[in-house]
Amino acid sequence: MRWLIVTADELGLSSKRNQGIVDAHTKGIVTSASMLAYGPAFREAVKIAKALPRLDVGLHLNLSEGEPLVLGHKSLVNPDGVFWGRQEARRRARENLFDLREVEREAEAQMDTLLSAGIKITSLSAVDHLHIRGNLADSLAVVCKRHGIRCFRCPADKVRPPSFTLDPERQAALLEYHESALTAVTVYAAQRMRSTEHFGGAALTGHLTPDLLLETIRTLPVGLTELMVHPGLKAAESGFEGPDRELELQALTDPRLKSVFQEQGIGLTSFAKL
Known about the structure:
single chain; alpha/beta; TIM Barrel; 8 strands; globular
């Protein structure tokens, strides 16, 4: 049997991202959303999560961009008191330069923010997959166990359409995800946490068209797969908040999907069912 979790990332980032996730869930195949603990549209996201009981919600941990929830960090933030940014945060995590006590406090604060708002957290993911880099899993797995979070994202991307060709830069990034995941999976498993058997979406970010999604669905491996997506409404003329968000929404609500799921014998599920 083949099962698929379709997770829309960054619920709470903006109203336009929120609306795209709502549409992809109510009119399409999105079953799960990863939610930021704070952001311009956080309060709206809380209302959305409560109004859509079938939408599974996980924490999208942020240790990369903007301001932390906890004051006084030394290693997690730059001299201006904000996170280091994606590229530098990746490097510092990879080289184990973060104080794990700070990681634990910040993760606790972000989880508590969602829980205090009445959100049930079923899984952990992170901006730029930072939760699997370096030794961060050592602290994050413990925090998850403390809060009863049993699932985490393992972004070892192996699921993609045969016709899709990776550029060298994207190929190098996917290789890094694989290498980082090898150690992290063991750490999370020691705390009785689990991930899906397969993962896809990292390679397709910015390239997910209706036809590529249909091709991906048809070639899903046996077992449980998580597909990471980023539907939304266009908030900019280019870049990550540009037209690609609406193209992903179009793909996730394509009317041909229903028949393909039936033909292939694929079931939709969520982390809440694990």
